[in-house]
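In keeping with the milestone schedule agreed at the kick-off meeting, the structural modelling team has produced records for the first pair of proteins. Each record is given below as a sequence line and a structure-token line. The laboratory manager (R.T.) confirmed that both were archived under the project's standard naming scheme.
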Amino acid sequence: MLTWGLLIVVAVVLVWGVAIYNRLVQLRNRIANAFGQIDVQLKRRHDLVPNLVEVARAYLAHESATLEAVIRARGQAQTATAAARAQPANAASIGALALAENALGGSLGRLMAVAENYPDLKADATMQSLSEELTSTENRLGFARQAYNDQVLDFNNEATQFPDLIVARLLGFATAAMLEATRNEAERAAPQVRF
């Protein structure tokens, strides 16, 4: 009788562990899927950058440092994206991606600011079209990041709450990292406008 009771307890614990494991795998796969949506938008963004730089190059011949900074930041962002694509729930790869994408965004912002000083460039139809496409891509990227962060939150909640925490720790499910705009408080501060 004791043997049957022990077998039933072991079977219940085993079924419970398998159910938790399956749920954690499902949530981790959702993170990968959500990152796939980010990856699509990042590819669009990375593909737009050379076209934007090439159009601007004709007008900004003496602004080569700005153009080179954009291309360099794009390369770093592509490298970080590839690393994050391989491990979309890895905190280090997601952190490196966020830093690289912030650098690319900053260099694109500087390029657009410089472009404002050149009326012919601002009026160029190709430049306007590329700028609109980039803006649209940035909006889509924002929505994809939100969806990714929602999936990370669900996974992290599941993996850090008792009793699921036990299975998560035993089977090596580490918490995933959110995609944040930046960790630097100076960069997070709103810009001051003075007249």
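The second protein of the pair:
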Amino acid sequence: MCSPRIMSEVYERIGRRANVSRRALFGVLGGAAVGATLAPALAARAYATPADATSIVDLTHVLTPQFPVWPGSRQFEMHTVASITTGNGSTGSLGPIGGSAFYLNELRYEEHTGTHVDAPAHASVDGITVEQIPAADLIAPIAVVDIAARAATDNDTLLTRQDLLEWEERHGRLSSRCIVAMHSGWESRVAAPGAFTNQDALGVQHTPGFAPEAVDFLVHERDIVAIGSDTLSIDAGRSTTYGAHLAALGAGKYGIEVLANLSTIPASGATCMVGAPTHAGGSGGPARVLALF
């Protein structure tokens, strides 16, 4: 962790430089910390940087023990192991920590919880694991394909190759090395118990996803690094063959699932920063995802 002295100096420098540019701010904080500084967790808002009027939107859901997970998966858990006191240290199962007071939690969750990354290894025996995703692929243009109107009346709708071609008619050819994200409006369901997984009486989920042939098109006819969705899966919930996963991850691309706030960024012209985890051998993991435009 950063020492209190270092963080104090960082905050002091930011305070002195009210007109700090995004480039300078990255230099002060480092890329890993900028999300926490500029995009608070309670956000469905854009944050303008004063120097260049660029907006930053947090595409990450706040993770709580109540957040929906894939049916049968473990819910997120957080337990306090040390808490700040006014005495000679912190209390909790760890007891005093070096004579100083710190707040500390233990987290328990499966890798594919909340807004998260799917590494190629998640669906491909030869795929790279999450810490091996090239850093250059974690900062990329993002294209948002909106199928929300259709998903509102057809929960099983798919993002198709035709949707992609129509997007290109309006916005131009997909950018090289881009992320293509499906916006289905599904995040509006996240607070309603059962609505996000949308299971029927037989336990089948009815949620939108990518058609496998659309992913084949993106992998073989366009130059993408990843695909993303605002649902629990890049595949439709009812899928039993997981064709979107196999097509994307099998081709060495990664996935980003359970994105937030896609309706608040432009269909084209934004840049996405994916704060993927780096635990060795991981199949994926929770991520902080930001859009800049």
